[in-house]
Design a protein that fits this description.
This protein has 194 residues and is of the alpha+beta class. Helices cover 29% and strands 28% of the residues.
Length: 194
């Protein structure tokens, strides 16, 4: 399980049918989800991958018939960000807990079968405010010594490995979060995490 920090979603401009590998992009776009769904049903994309070639371009996993053998087609949302590299930072729950704490956004943790989870693993904040938190955390950072890997033996003998982090990990992540915040701020968007 993980937490991803990113700018809030851009304005939706349309819809496209493609596969989950994201390299398959139909030239056929739709103005509404309803229209894309009707096309999807009309071409029986819910039942047979062999219908791909007639309506979609091939993808990186294209088989002999020119369709994706690994993925099922689904409706992609097209936003104003389409084709742009939108910055995002993904980290494990354990690492997110540390970063949320450094940013003053951690209200608590809860126990789960997957280990500790941040209570506030989902949230949003104005980019300017989030950027202020990141800059403050960077200014107050005294350097991150990293964390060693730990192995935990569970009841029944199963082993859980808690991956460590290298020296400077938190500082690197704070710099990446600064980039996310600046990108979002420049476009009048919020920073979200979930």
């Amino acid at each position: 399980m993980s937490v991803t920090f990113s700018p809030s979603m851009a304005t939706v401009t349309g819809f496209r049918i493609g596969c989950s590998c994201k390299t398959n992009k139909s030239k056929v776009t739709f103005g509404s989800y309803k229209d894309a769904e009707a096309f999807y049903v009309k071409h029986n994309l819910t039942q047979s991958a062999s219908n791909f070639p007639s309506v979609l371009e091939g993808c990186q996993y294209a088989g002999k018939e020119g369709y994706c053998e690994e993925c099922s087609p689904f409706i992609h949302v097209i936003t104003e960000d389409d084709g742009q590299d939108v910055p995002e930072v993904n980290m494990s729950n354990t690492n997110a807990i540390k970063l949320l704490e450094m940013l003053g956004l951690l209200t608590g943790v809860e126990e789960s079968p997957f280990g500790l989870l941040p209570v506030d693993a989902c949230g949003a904040e104005e980019a300017d405010d989030f950027l202020g938190r990141v800059l403050t955390a960077q200014a107050l950072s005294t350097g991150d010594p990293g964390r060693p890997e730990e192995t935990e033996v569970m009841e029944g003998g199963a082993m859980v490995i808690h991956c460590g982090t290298p020296e400077g990990y938190a500082d690197q992540r704070l710099e990446q979060l600064r980039e996310v915040a600046e990108w979002a701020k420049a476009r009048g968007r919020m920073v979200t995490w979930s």
